[in-house]
Write a structure and sequence with these properties.
Number of strands of chain A: 10
Number of helices of chain B: 9
Strand content of chain A: 25-35%
Strand order of the largest sheet of chain A: 6-7-8-3-9-10
Order of helices and strands of chain B: HHHHHHHHH
Distance between the termini of chain A: 29 Å
CATH superfamily of chain A: P-loop containing nucleotide triphosphate hydrolases
Distance between the termini of chain B: 30 Å
Low-confidence stretches of chain A: 1-9
Number of strands of chain B: 0
Number of helices of chain A: 8
CATH topology of chain A: Rossmann fold
Structural class of chain A: alpha/beta
Oligomer: heterodimer
Radius of gyration of chain B: 18 Å
Shape of chain B: globular
Structural class of chain B: mainly alpha
CATH class of chain A: Alpha Beta
Mean pLDDT of chain B: 92
Shape of chain A: globular
CATH architecture of chain A: 3-Layer(aba) Sandwich
Largest interface: A-B, 34 and 26 residues
Number of domains of chain A: 1
Strand content of chain B: under 5%
C-alpha cells in the first residue's frame, strides 16, 4: 500500500494522508482522515479542542503510529519509514525542546551536533532568528517566551526541516512575541519550507496561511482554501 | 551537513548532561549532602561500632541506591521539562547513542557519589581498608555502577512519559537492581574485611556484577529506542 501511495506522490506534495485512523487507547483521535498538503504551503489547522489538531501534527512528525490507512510525509512512508519521516520534519509543540541550563548557542550546538551541522550553519540560523550577539550566550532560563520560541525555530533551521509542524506557536506569548513568531514563519515560508500550524489566534494565523483545514471529531470537515 | 556516527551522539549527549549538572550543581549541593546525612542517620539508628563495622557495606550501598534515584530522576527531568525527549525523537537522533550518552554521564555522577560515601563510611564507621581490599572495592564498585546506571537509564526512559514517574521509578528500578545491591555489598564486605571475611571471597561477586552490567547495558542500548517510542 505504502509503495502504491509513494508512486502516486510527486515531489510537489509534502503530506498525503488517506483514510488515516489514530487511536489513543480506544479513542479514535483521528478517524478516517484524508489530507493533502503541497510543498511550500502554510496550512492552518482549525477546530475545537479535541478535534484532532495535535494528533494530526504528531502523526505527521512520525511520533504517533497510525492504526489504519496510509500516509506519506516528505516522501517517506508513515507506516514503514517513521525514522525517515522524523529526520525530514521539525516540530515545535507546546514546549520548545530546549535545555534551561544551557545557553542559546550551546542548545544549538547540541542539536546541531546530532546531525553534523557545522559552525557556519549554526551562525546562519542564529542570524536568521536574531539570536546572534549578546543573546547567544544567555542561558535559556533567562530568555523571554518569544526568545525561547525563536531558539526552537532556529533549531528547525539548523536541522533544515522541510516541513515545520507547529502546535499552537502563539500560545503563552505576548503581542510582541506573537509578532516575532509570525515574522519567523513568513521567513520560513519564503525560504521554501512547508508549514502546518494549529492556532487559536485565528485572525493572526489566517494572515499567514495559504490554506485552512478545519477538523472536527478527528476528520477534515472543511478545506475552504 | 555530514552524517553523524553513534559515537558523536554519545559524546554530545554525555557532554550536555554533564554540563547541565555542572551548571545546576544538584549533585554537589543536594544529593551528596543527602547521602551523607543518610550515613549519619544509619549511625544514630544502629549506635554501636561493632554493628556499624559489620553492616557498613550494606549501609553504603543502600545510601548509594536511594541517592542514585534522585540523580536518575534529574537526568530525565531535564529531557522532559521542555519536551526535549520528544524533540530528540523528531530529530531522528540515534536513540541507542542517546542511551549510551546518558548511561556514561550517569556513571560519572554515581562514581563521585560512591567515592564520597565510601570515604564517609571509612571516617564515620571506623573501617580499616587495606590496599588489596581497595582494588576489589574499586573494581566491584565500577562494575556495580555500570549495571545500576544501565538499569536506571532504561527504566527512567520508560517512566519518563508516565504520570507519577517520581514514585514509579524507584518501584521499577530497585527490585531489578537488587542483584547489584547484593553483589556490591558482598564484595565490599570482603574488601572491608567485615564479619571476618577475606578479600578473596569478594572476587566471585565481581563476576556477577560484570555479567549484570554487560547484559543490561547492551540490552538497554537495543531496547531504549523502542521503549521510548511506545
Amino acid at each position: 500500500m505504502g509503495v502504491e501511495l509513494s508512486a502516486q506522490c510527486d515531489e510537489s506534495v509534502a503530506v498525503t494522508l488517506r483514510d488515516v485512523v489514530v487511536l489513543l487507547g480506544d479513542f479514535p483521535a483521528l478517524a478516517s482522515l484524508d489530507l493533502s498538503v503541497n510543498r511550500g504551503e502554510v496550512v492552518m489547522l482549525t477546530g475545537p479542542n479535541g478535534a484532532g489538531k495535535t494528533s494530526l501534527l504528531r502523526v505527521c512528525a512520525g511520533l504517533v503510529p497510525i492504526a489504519r490507512g496510509e500516509g506519506m510525509v516528505m516522501g517517506a512512508d508513515l507506516r514503514h519509514q517513521r525514522a525517515s519521516v522524523r529526520s525530514r520534519v521539525g516540530m515545535v509543540g507546546h514546549s520548545n525542546g530546549l535545555y534551561d541550563d544551557l545557553t542559546v548557542r550551546e542548545n544549538l550546538e547540541f542539536w546541531g551536533s546530532l546531525i553534523g551541522a557545522g559552525d557556519d550553519e549554526l551562525r546562519q540560523a542564529m542570524s536568521i532568528m536574531g539570536l546572534d550577539g549578546r543573546l547567544a550566550s544567555v542561558r535559556v532560563r533567562g530568555l523571554s517566551a518569544g526568545q525561547r520560541r525563536r531558539t526552537a525555530f532556529a533549531i528547525l533551521v539548523v536541522r533544515r526541516a522541510g516541513l515545520w509542524l507547529l502546535d499552537e506557536p502563539h500560545a503563552g506569548l505576548d503581542s510582541d512575541a506573537r509578532d516575532e513568531v509570525d515574522e519567523v514563519l513568513r521567513r520560513a515560508s519564503a525560504s521554501g519550507a512547508t508549514v502546518m500550524l494549529s492556532s487559536h489566534e485565528l485572525d493572526r494565523a489566517q494572515q499567514l496561511a495559504t490554506k485552512e483545514v478545519r477538523l472536527a471529531g478527528g476528520v477534515v470537515v472543511g478545506d475552504p482554501q | 551537513m555530514s552524517s553523524v556516527s553513534r559515537l558523536q551522539t554519545v559524546r554530545a549527549v554525555c557532554a550536555k548532561d554533564l554540563r547541565i549538572e555542572q551548571r545546576s550543581k544538584v549533585l554537589t549541593s543536594q544529593i551528596v549532602p543527602f547521602a551523607l546525612v543518610m550515613l549519619v542517620l544509619f549511625a544514630f539508628a544502629l549506635d554501636g561500632d561493632v554493628i556499624l563495622e559489620r553492616t557498613a557495606p550494606g549501609l553504603v550501598w543502600l545510601a548509594m541506591l536511594f541517592s542514585s534515584m534522585i540523580i536518575v530522576q534529574r537526568s530525565f527531568v531535564v529531557e522532559i521539562a521542555d519536551g526535549a525527549l520528544d524533540a530528540l525523537r523528531v530529530a531522528g537522533a540515534d536513540m541507542s547513542g542517546v542511551f549510551w550518552g546518558k548511561w556514561f554521564a550517569l556513571i560519572v555522577q554515581l562514581v563521585v557519589l560512591e567515592a564520597v560515601l565510601i570515604v564517609g563510611a571509612i571516617v564515620m564507621y571506623g573501617i580499616d581498608l587495606q590496599i588489596s581490599g581497595l582494588v576489589l572495592l574499586v573494581t566491584s564498585s565500577i562494575s556495580a555502577t555500570c549495571g545500576l546506571s544501565a538499569v536506571s537509564t532504561i527504566y527512567a526512559g520508560l517512566a519518563s512519559g508516565v504520570r507519577g514517574r517520581e514514585s514509579l521509578l524507584p518501584l521499577l528500578v530497585l527490585p531489578v537492581a537488587s542483584p547489584v545491591l547484593i553483589g556490591a555489598t558482598r564484595a565490599a564486605e570482603a574488601a572491608f574485611g567485615a564479619g571476618g571475611t577475606v578479600v578473596s571471597e569478594g572476587w566471585p561477586w565481581l563476576g556477577l556484577l560484570s555479567v549484570f552490567a554487560v547484559v543490561f547495558s547492551f540490552g538497554g542500548s537495543l531496547a531504549f529506542g523502542p521503549l521510548i517510542d511506545d
